[in-house]
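Hey everyone, long-time lurker, first post.

I ran two proteins through the pipeline my lab uses and got sequence/structure pairs for each. Pasting them in order. The first:
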Amino acid sequence: MHPGAAQIAPGAMADRQDLVSRAIQDRFRCPQDFVGFTLRQEPPSTKDDAPLNGRSAGSGRSGLEGLRAAGDFFTGYESLSNVVNGDGEFRLPFDPNEVIDSLRLERYWRAPYRRSDRLLKDIYYWLRPLTNQSIRRGIQKFRARNWRKAKFPRWPVDTTVENICENLLLLALQVKGVERIPFVWFWPSGARACVTMTHDVETETGRDFCGDLMSIDDAFGIKASFQIVPEDRYTVSAQFLDMLRRRGFEIGVQDLNHDGRLFDSREGFLRRVQDINRYGREYGARGFRAGVLYRNPEWYDALEFSFDMSMPNVAHFDPQGGGCCTVMPYFIGNVLELPVTTTQDYTLFHLLNQHSIDLWKTQTELILRKHGLVSFIIHPDYVIDPKPNYVYRELLGYLRTLRENENVWFALPTAIDHWWRARSKMLVVPYGGSYRIEGEGAKHAVLAFAKNVNGRLEYEFPARTT
């Protein structure tokens, strides 16, 4: 189990010292003595305040409302600062790790939402063979018609997890009475944020356009990961896979046959995942993505992949709602999750009816503020026609300008996986009156300091210690 791994089984609610320390360590990798202070948890005042569906709050809307209340509580530094007593101890009505796990694992969305979604999905896939693309788009638009009314997760980017962690570190600064806390910066070489491009290949037409799409990417100096559907959709030849590798692009496995049934039952999933894992070995793929972004992170222990890319940040338009509410990678057991943090091209073009990069730019700027992962899904199937093709080229031009003007790391998913795993094991230790970072890959890491500036967390980079 990685030090930052989300705990699949909720722990017992009790007084303990790790309530804040795990949440802070997960994100910041700072010395334990800065965050190892006493925490005493107070029970929620009513069951409607409990943050987790299926545990404290039973099920139903009370769990979601309780989670929103918990998220709001932890994202307000002023409210947090009021819970500190004179002995350096503070009381919390919620376990912050439980709240974060509920968000990142979408536990708040399980019941009754999954039951209703399952029924609608069954009807949709039963009727799908009788419909054409125009009818399917109409159904999808009808389902998403009330998306503007959804208050949670927050559109167009939800950073509730980041807000919680930042405010808890602010609280640690207050309790410890220090001016700043050292930590391992989020990205190698001090990069402000990270950008990754992925292409999900869904049809034979899309597969045949992959060569042209690689040429477009190369013209802007960007490499991408191509997620391949192994069965039924199209033929996957060794020559096709070799072409992707030879040109410096990456290969991931996308579902088994993209029929929307992967997570219908545990038994069916375990049967299919044997073939999915086999294709991963055959393709030399370290990453997985589920078709249509259907997901159940509680079952990821059966995946023999290093990372997954199926969890959306905000899922207002996806067949499976919810959202992980974070723009940072995180562990689900031994699988690293690289969340999808921007709107898919299909959603932009066909559900929102937008043919501009304005939304993508807005989302990117919001993610940059949190120093997060900007991840895109662009389907070769949907950027063949001139109009969407032009929009995609415009996006690549914007990203190229971003790379030229900002210290942003452009990386393939496997490189991000390698970095985040290495970072999760790094330690900040005292050294010569300051600190240094130890651990494999530390030569690429940058020591940073977090400090409280008028109730807001700010970061600074001292001269690097050698």
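...and the second, right after it:
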Amino acid sequence: MKNISFAQHLEFLKISKIRQIMNSAPKDAINLGLGEIQFPLHDSLKRKAEQIIENENLFYTTNAGILELREKISKYYDLYFKENVCITAGAEEAIFASLFAYLNPGDEVLIADPGFVAYKTIIRMLKAKPVSFKLDPDDFHFDLNEFKSKITKKTKIVLLNNPINPTGTAYSSHDLKQISELCNERNILLSVDEVYRELYIEDKPQSILEINPNSLSISSLSKSHGMSGWRLGWVASASSELIEPIIKVHQYICTCANTLAQKLAISAFSPDGKIVLESILNRLADNRKIVQKYFPANYLLPNKCHPYFFVQVKNDIEIIEKILQQKVIVIPGSVFGRNGENWIRLNYGIESDLLETGIKRILEII
């Protein structure tokens, strides 16, 4: 049998640099790289999952997800529920389904540099064009003039991440209002990935739905409740009309999100779920102090969000290779965009003893 060629639209598609680094790392390397909380699942969630498996049926749900869960998510945003939430297999599926529902070939999507690596690739997969606006290279704050200069007649969507992965910084309410006004004036869909919002150290940033109800908010329980492997996310809006086409796309991607994960997620919005979040926040706060104890302050970008620090180095790619040799995984800032060069992203959402060992090995190099 002759070799079967892969689809032409895969020619540009490569495994992300993050996964390349993970795959090349020694098996016993300390993982301060991958963007997840690596604490064991909280005991209360384990017990609840056991009860669900023991006592309930786990068949398909409706495409959009279990009604009770959608209602709780709508209430989380202080919205009246009217079919305006779609439960997805993690936030990344919500991003893909949302972009698929609205993008045509040749459309432009405005994203930040540095920013989450998947955005650019998903946009290109849909034959649209990612256009980057630079966050200020000194402290990575938002520059309205830079943002406005990148808007064209082809701009269809603005896709933000707030708080921002990889920097741990956030857009202010003033920033979001300015962005929202521009999007409304120019008929641009505003979509904001808010998966780190519950991990903000002080008063959490406003959700975009508090500022612009007719935008899209994407989030999940992966970070806030340590449920990354359960693949439970959502996309929400005040407008059911904006969500309806996303549900259609989602139906053909995976029918419905994992039923067990959906039922467990209902408890995440209960008082017990708040205890889980507080437990994770407390552990992250302790680990944050460990990072700050070892690194000189001028190495760390000031931020107010767990679980990342952006650490300044001289040559991020070269440094990463040396750190890998010491059996520690961190991610070069240039992976997230040109503006991230000479930084590395360090994730401290890991057991404290491993974190401390990893930091000591990193400091031997830098």
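Reply from user beta_strand_b:
Welcome! Quick read of the second one: Residues 202 and 304 are 7 Å apart (CA to CA). The longest helix spans residues 271-294.
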